[in-house]
Amino acid sequence: MSGNMRVKNTIVINGKVYDAITGLPAGAPDAISTPAHAAKPTVAHQAQTMSDIAPRRADTKAIVKAKSVHRQTQRSQTLRRDLIKHPAPQQHAQTRRKPTPGSIATSPHISKFAPHPQPIAKPAVSHATVSHQAEHKPAPQNHHKATGALSSRELKEKLIAERLAAVQNEPTHAHHAAPKKHNFFAQAPRVSSVLAGCFAIVLIGGYLTYINMPNLSMRVAAAQAGVDASFPDYRPDGYRFDGPIAYNNGEVSLKFTSNTNTSGYTINQKNSSWDSQAVLDNYVSKKAKEYLTYSEQGLTIYTFKGEAAWVNGGVFYTISGDAPLSSDQVLRIVGSM
Questions:
Q1: Residue 35: pLDDT over 50
Q2: What number of other Cβ atoms are within 10 A of residue 302's Cβ?
Q3: Which single residue of 37, 89, 271, 310 has CA 20 to 30 Å from 55?
């Protein structure tokens, strides 16, 4: 390969010359084709360089930097729903179509078809106050407003008017059930039980008050008189307490009367500094010459002529009256005080 001549690799396709390396058109075919018997020129031996050995590529076009490739981000063209008025929903009044029973054609020559079952009528149930009627579905009506649907308020008013008209057209009952007479205690058993409980409480309270009233009265009288007086727990059969309790300054008096006659006895209690001997000397000896002495619960009791006298805790007790009390009854009265 000489330095004056440059090797070109080309290909001729359909009369056109193409570079075998780059594939680009190189020129006319007659300009590069060499005859088969062409004489070889003398070659001067010179130092080969890399440019002489490697095939030279075809000149490429100058690369021009694109300036308009990178542009600003295009603004979004999405529709802003928040700035647009929302479309109002349209309400269409729908009416149900009543189903019509289908008809089936049967041949007159076929007789095996069973007769249609008759519906069983249920007995009508009559109520005293409320009557449940079958719900009447509104029949489809021709709407005059074909262009627009009814609003919710108009539809509501229309349904109410139709319902009122249906109720007014319903037949009224010829007879009504007679009102029943309700018993107060049968209808309110709880009230009767509460009243019975209150009545029982009142009875028990009255009984307790009756029993404890003399004791309460005795406490009040003792406080007013200034005497440590007490009410006897024992009362002879046939005698009752004939109140109220009488009291004076330093003295309290209890009266008991017979249930069968006017006889009775009285218990007097008053403050005293006497002892048993002083009672005998100052009271019993002056009342009777004959007397009986009893000892009960550490106390000395003197009895004479159906009467009794004793002293206990600074209080002088006496029993007097026309009641025929026995010695045992007197001692039981003393022990109960």
A1: no
A2: 22
A3: 37
